Amino acid sequence: MSNLLDIFIMKQRALDVDDQNARTVFWVMFEKLSIILSLVIIFAITLALDLPWWAIGAILGFSLGPIVYGHYYFIYIRPVMKRREG
Q1: How far is residue 73's CA from residue 51's CA, in Å, rounded to a whole number?
Q2: How far is CA 21 from CA 16, 26, 65, in A?
Q3: Which of 10, 37, 53, 66 has the highest local Cβ count within 10 Å?
Q4: Under 8 Å CB-to-CB from 29, ≥6 apart: which residues?
Q5: Cα-to-chain-centroid distance, residue 37
């Protein structure tokens, strides 16, 4: 499993390899928008379950790390690992 420094290094390599600046900007915007949309969906689900505010905060806090790591994995880490294999 990759640690946090490896993730940032792989992200920087993925951005450095890409010569098309517009594509890089698109991926960064897509990453941020997708993370926010995922958190909004989780927030809506917790509101629909009528949970107390402290539970909503705890669920959002605990889900933030896996959501961000999942997005980083699929957008930055996985393509770098595929390039190394093939």
Answers
A1: 30
A2: 10, 9, 28
A3: 10
A4: none
A5: 11
Alpha carbons within 13 angstroms on the beta-carbon side of residue 50 total 0
Residue reference for tokens 């909004």? 40
Instruction: Please indicate, yes or no, whether the overall pTM of this predicted structure exceeds 0.90.
Output: no
The 3-class secondary structure across the chain, one letter per residue, is CCCHHHHHHHHHHHHHHCCCHHHHHHHHHHHHHHHHHHHHHHHHHHHHCCCCHHHHHHHHHHHHHHHHHHHHHHHHHHHHHHHHHC
pLDDT in tens, the chain (86 residues): 567 677 667 666 666 655 555 566 677 778 889 999 999 999 999 999 999 999 999 999 999 999 988 888 887 778 777 877 87
Query: Is the separation of the CB atoms in 60 and 46 below 8 Å?
Result: yes
